[in-house]
Amino acid sequence: MDDPYDAAPPSKRTLPPPSFGALMRITWQHVRAELLEAIHAAGFPEFQDAHFAVFSYPLPDGVRPSELARRKNISRQAVNYLLGQLESLGYVERRAEGDADRRLVHLTPRGWAIADAIHARLTYLQTEWSREVGPDRFAVFLDVLKELSGKAGTDPRRE
What we know:
Elements: H1 4-7, H2 20-41, H3 65-72, H4 76-88, E1 92-96, E2 103-107, H5 109-133, H6 135-151
Antiparallel strand pairs: 1-2
Helix pairs in contact: 2-5, 3-4, 5-6
């Protein structure tokens, strides 16, 4: 079977509509932009898009850096680099618990303020999107997301 993309010159090719993956990415980019705007408006202009790797569900409070790397599916070196940035900004701290030699990551009051800004904007977006598409459709959307996240090996209630 001929490939329809090879038949026409590049400037004349018609692309198919975006796949579900592209639609999810576009939507997620919109959400991240909203979250970044909310964080900056809350008084944290130095927070960067890359910091979402640490400030995503579940929040890293009382977790080892190596466990955080595993949860976020990024290298330990990348996590430690990000944690160094976030520590210097006063958002997280690494400290030993009791007599243990292991240091755990904890959010500082500034880090919790960022988490609050994220939560508030997500709550706002959820309300707005539910209003835009209707509460019944939005409830189905959430149910589908929960089901698919469970199949991906991530139970949103346990992570």
